[in-house]
Design brief:
Order of helices and strands: HHHHHEEHEEEEHEEHHEEEHH
Shape: rod-shaped
Number of domains: 2
Low-confidence stretches: none
Number of strands: 11
Number of helices: 11
Structural class: alpha+beta
Distance between the termini: 38 Å
Largest sheet: 6 strands, antiparallel
Length: 374
C-alpha cells in the first residue's frame, strides 16, 4: 500500500539530548579554536614584526657602513696622505711654544673677517679641490675637512668651523691619543642643506708606518635613514621606530628627531633586551598605556663600533587593531555558543511546562486517577 505521507516522530527528550551532545561540545571546541587562533596570530605577527625590524636594522647598518667606507676612501687618498705628512714635517725643528701660539692666534680670530685670507688660501689648495671632487661625486658628503696631527685644518670643501680642532671631542675621539679610531657624532641638523647629518671622522695614516698623521672628517647626510621611520605606518598598520639605548626615539612617525620623546615600546622590552632568550625571541606581547601591543625589535649592532649609535629598531602594533578580523570571528563563535545554550534552555523549559500541562489534562479527564507524577 503506497504511503501518502512520510512522518518521523522523535521524542522531545531525544531532541534535547541531541542538542546537548552536539551544540555544547561544538561551542566549546569553537571557542577553544578561536582562542588558539588568537594566540597563533600574536605569535605569527610577532615573528613578522621581528623580521621587519631585522630588515630595517640590516639596512641601517649597511648604510652607515657605506658612509664610513666613503670617508675611509678619502682618508686613504694619496693626495690627502701626502698633504698631511707634508704639514706635519713643517713643524720639525720649530719651537713648540711658538707653534702653539701661532695656531692659537689664528684660531682666536677664525670667526672674524681677519681670517679671510687664511681661509681662502686653505680652500684654494689642490687637496681642497680633490675634496670638492669627492663631495660632488657623492651627494651624501655635505662637507669635508682634513687636519694634521695637531688638529690644524689644511684642506676643506668649505670654511671649517675651527682652524684647530684639538679641543673638539669628535676629533679627540678619532685621534685617540695617537692610536686612531673611527668616530661618529650624534645626529645634527644642517640648515642650509635642510638635512640631518653626523660627522664621521677617520684617521689619516702614514703609508709606511701606519701611524696616525691626521684626521679626515666629513659631515654625512643621514636624512634618508631617518625618513624611512617617519611614515605613518608600514604593512597593515604597524609602526616602525628607531630608538637609542636610553629609550629616546631617534626617528618615528611624525616625530621630531630632537624632541627627545621616550618610547613606551622600548621601556616594555628592556628586560627582553637584557636576556639572551629575549634577544633571540625578537618580539613580545606587552601591556602599554595604549593597550596590549605586539612589539618586534632588532639591534642595529652599530654600538660595537660607534658608541653614539646605540640604536634599536622597534616595530609594533596594538593587538586590538591587529586581531580585529579574528576578533569578529571569536565574537561570532561566542554568540553562537550563547544562542545554542539559550535554545537548549528554552526547549528544556518548554518540555517541562508541556509535560506538566499534559499531566494536568489527564487529571481533569480522570478525576479519580491515582497516576503519579512522572
Amino acid at each position: 500500500m503506497p504511503l501518502d505521507r512520510f512522518e518521523v516522530r522523535v521524542s522531545i527528550q531525544k531532541v534535547l539530548l541531541g542538542l546537548v551532545l552536539v551544540i555544547v561540545p561544538l561551542s566549546i571546541v569553537g571557542l577553544y579554536l578561536t582562542a588558539r587562533s588568537d594566540h597563533a596570530l600574536a605569535e605569527s605577527s610577532g615573528t613578522y614584526f621581528k623580521t621587519l625590524a631585522q630588515m630595517y636594522s640590516n639596512d641601517i647598518s649597511h648604510q652607515i657602513s657605506d658612509r664610513v667606507a666613503a670617508v675611509n676612501l678619502i682618508a686613504a687618498e694619496p693626495a690627502v696622505v701626502a698633504a698631511v705628512n707634508a704639514a706635519n714635517r713643517a713643524y720639525e725643528g720649530k719651537n713648540e711654544q711658538a707653534i702653539n701660539e701661532k695656531i692659537g692666534k689664528v684660531e682666536s680670530t677664525w670667526g672674524s673677517a681677519q681670517s679671510a685670507p687664511t681661509a681662502k688660501a686653505l680652500l684654494a689648495t689642490p687637496v681642497s679641490e680633490t675634496l670638492r671632487h669627492y663631495r660632488d661625486m657623492d651627494p651624501r658628503l655635505l662637507r669635508i675637512t682634513i687636519t694634521d696631527e695637531r688638529g690644524v685644518s689644511l684642506a676643506a670643501t668649505s670654511k671649517p668651523a675651527h682652524f684647530a680642532f684639538t679641543q673638539d671631542q669628535t676629533w679627540q675621539n678619532a685621534y685617540a691619543g695617537g692610536q686612531g679610531s673611527a668616530s661618529i657624532t650624534n645626529i645634527l641638523y644642517d640648515e642650509p642643506n635642510k638635512a640631518y647629518y653626523t660627522n664621521i671622522s677617520i684617521p689619516v695614516k702614514e703609508s709606511g708606518t701606519g701611524q696616525v698623521a691626521g684626521i679626515a672628517t666629513a659631515a654625512v647626510d643621514i636624512t634618508p635613514i631617518l625618513a624611512s621611520f617617519q611614515q605613518d605606518s608600514i604593512g597593515d598598520g604597524a609602526q616602525a621606530f628607531l630608538v637609542s639605548d636610553d629609550g629616546t626615539v631617534v626617528s618615528g612617525p611624525r616625530m621630531d628627531v630632537f624632541a627627545r620623546v621616550k618610547s613606551d615600546q622600548f621601556a616594555a622590552l628592556r628586560d627582553s633586551l637584557g636576556s639572551v632568550n629575549g634577544r633571540q625571541n625578537g618580539y613580545l606581547d606587552a601591556d602599554l598605556s595604549s593597550g596590549r601591543t605586539i612589539i618586534g625589535f632588532a639591534d642595529t649592532g652599530l654600538s660595537k663600533s660607534y658608541k653614539n649609535l646605540s640604536w634599536t629598531v622597534v616595530v609594533s602594533q596594538p593587538e586590538d587593531k591587529l586581531a580585529a578580523p579574528i576578533r569578529a570571528v571569536t565574537q561570532f563563535a561566542l554568540l553562537m555558543a550563547i544562542l545554542g545554550l539559550f535554545m537548549i534552555t528554552l526547549l528544556g523549559v518548554y518540555y517541562a511546562l508541556h509535560r506538566k500541562q499534559q499531566f494536568a489534562d489527564i487529571q481533569e479527564v480522570l478525576p479519580g486517577s491515582t497516576l503519579a507524577h512522572p
